[in-house]
Amino acid sequence: MFCPRCGREYRETVNFCCQCGAAMSSPPTAERKLTRSRHDKKIAGVCGGLGEYLAVDPTLVRLIWLIAVIFGGTGLLAYVIAWIVMPQEPEPKPAPAPVSAGAQPAPTP
Question: pTM of the predicted model, to two decimals?
Answer without folding.
Answer: 0.55
